[in-house]
Write a structure and sequence with these properties.
The complex is a heterodimer of chains A (313) and B (528). With 313 residues, chain A is mainly α. Chain A has 13 helices and no strands. In chain A, helix 5 crosses helix 8 (174-208). Chain A is globular, with a radius of gyration of 24 Å. The termini of chain A are close together. Chain B has 528 residues and is of the alpha+beta class. Chain B has 17 helices and 21 strands. In chain B, helix 4 (106-119) crosses helix 5 (121-127), helix 11 (310-317) packs antiparallel against helix 13 (379-393) and helix 16 packs antiparallel against helix 17. The longest helix of chain B has 18 residues, at 473-490. The two termini of chain B are 47 Å apart. The chains are: A mainly alpha (313), B alpha+beta (528). At the A-B interface, helix 2, helix 3, helix 5, helix 7 and helix 8 of A face helix 1, helix 8 and helix 14 of B.
Amino acid sequence: MTSYIVRRLFATLPVMAVVALFVFFLLRFAPGDPAAIIAGDDATAESIAAVRAKLGLDRPMVEQFVVWVGQLLQGDMGVSIFSNLAVTRLIAQRLEPTVALTLSTLFVAVVLAVPIGVVAAWKARKLVDRLAMAFAVLGFAMPTFVLAYILIYFFAVQWQLLPVQGYAPIKQGFWPFVESLILPSVALGITYMALIARITRASMLEVLAQDYIRTANSKGLATDRVLLLHALKNAAVPIVTVIGIGIALLISGVVITETVFNIPGLGRLTVDAVLKRDYPVVQGLILVFAGAKVLVNLIIDISYAFLDPRIRY
Amino acid sequence: MIRRILAGAVALAVPFAAAQTPALAQEKVLKAVMHADVRVIDPVWTTQTIANIHGALIYDTLFGNDGNQKPQPQMVGKYEISPDRLTYTFTLRDGLKFHDGSPVTTKDVIASLKRWGAKDGVGQRLMGFVTKMEPVDDKTFTMVLREPYGMVLESLGKSQSSIAAIMREKDALTDPQQQVKEAVGSGPYMFAKDQWVPGSKAVYLKNKDYVPRTEAPSSFAGAKIPGVDRIELVWISDPQTTMSALINGEIDFYEQPTNDFLPLLEKARGVKLMKTGKIDSTQGMIRLNHLHPPFDNVKARQAMYYLINQEDFLRTIVGDPKFYRVCKGLLTCGGPYENDGGSELMKEYNPKKALQLLKEAGYKGEPITVLSATDHATITPATQVLVQAMREAGINVDAQSMDWGSVVTRRAKKEPPAQGGWNIFVTTSGGVGSSNPVLHTWIGAACDKGLFGWPCDPEVEKLRNAFGMAATEEERKKIAKELQTRAMEQVVFLPFGQWDTPIAFRGDKIDNVVPNTGLAVLWGITKK
């Protein structure tokens, strides 16, 4: 197992190199010029050119790439063209809200979705199953921002139970922290819940048709024991895969949810940086996202071995 | 089991709850959502309005223009102008200190003015007249001009584009094309750089050592008395969320609410709307590229006037007539130099006539490239109205959709439209700057040295200079009319009206909100 993990970690290096190369040149080929945005509306073309020169953006692209890679190899992601702050600082500032939103969303999604999926499979083709799947389809079909605005309208504006927007870091207190995450987690979690519930149901249906489940039932084991210990554990591989994909998607940016609820996470940082053509920030973020995805995939693969003893690396 | 989980959660929560400091809870905090987020901390390096709002909180200026756009001394205690109007002697008032505790000296002031004068358009114009600036002592310095210039104090006190921010000498010696690394000024608030989260929040702390002037506050002039302990410029990019946050009392001040939400805000309990200052409006402008056909021909440019029905633009952008007005001039309507010079060129909307005049000017149906921004609250709909009018006239329009960031890049290109250039883009200008022919850089026609579109007319520039050198208000008004007439004949830009965006704020939570005059004045706002 250890040699497998080491091999996988080494295999990420060429992936990251390709990502770095691709992102760098894609950004430079895209229309837009940070110097023009910095200089502002009342700046002349000469003034923009002067800013561009000072930022080094007028140098040959290959030269800029070599400089950036050189910095990266020393662990330096560069500084934001606009704020002059280190990219690592900007990413670190946004990491906590994103991680908090990711975990709380997954908590909401998994806690609701897995039982729904299990029950739907257990009561397959009955009313409970149809209601559960209708709920799942609705959750999947409804755009997050629509649900977000509905939740804000009722829970924040009308009933004033929760804040409309913003993120309270955990150091400001546990309740403000939780309070700031409830509505975004629910709005975002519903979509993931729908996905996980459907996968859980499909996977459980397949397992429940297996001989060993029939054996367990004929031995007179309690239903919950059959469902949770015998069936769910064996149905877990595809469920964990979907949850893992969800983590990767959430980390790399849930822009709409972050925008509607004004959560200063990595997704919003990415969009803002792209719109402003803040090259060093976009480059740094894409590398972080790529690394996160590789890591999440690795963790999922390792978890298979624990969930299914037949899988060995 | 459940009890154990709950007990664990409470045990976890207690230390976090205790971490909240009582001092923070007692602080008077103003939470304001502005039109953009603070991303740049140097108001001289950029002309972005938000950088200027940030700059006005932390930096002071020698003069400040009051609500009537008259310059009043701010950092300056007394000043003298020689009888020949060539030598200005300024003496700084007592008690001026930077946020790091060091005193403000004339060395700081001269270095700051030199940097600002090398970067800002109005500053460059002023420095064109200045032959030398010399310190007399730590508190007094002289500015000598080569010929009389009537806009010296107005330029030093202006609030639009880049303010003439006074920085520490060591910061002011930074290359004007590079951003200063530290934002240390001598103004009423101090920038808390360690709490700054670009794209989310910028924090300003009360400068307890600030010595305000004794005169009554008026826009950028008079006493700047910090009204709260802490100002947080919170950036909420979604207008609907911002509106809900204001209604819910989570924020106190919303600088530019979307027009669609004004009826809701008017009805919301505790929320007040305030009209902006007399000339603090937004002016819509259509810029033509004078370098390339067909608009290198003045007749083709004038033909475009027949496609402008300002009501169409204003209804689309604003909707409610109480927030907009038709203005067929280039200088702000309602401002001191409003006049009707050249406005007869905009007498009717007539697409057929527009096409006919274009053909007479040599237009043969070539595509006209319009830079069409897709993500701007006002410029996007205005561009759509223009494109529709052009298509109605039978003009071959190549409307190229792109985000605003791409428009500002593309408009700087001087190449022909087929090679990545352009023919038309739409933009806006602040009413305060647009009220004065010298401060209104878009009215200029300085060819290559001018703004995008590069109108080129020595007569316009001569009149702008003459305005700056005029000694009396009567003379200025006369020149302003001549200038507007000439600029409209040359079609430096096509105006499509003026509109106001009221400020929305919690009237039950904050006091002393004043109408904008170019920039939001936040320092005097107090918390109830």
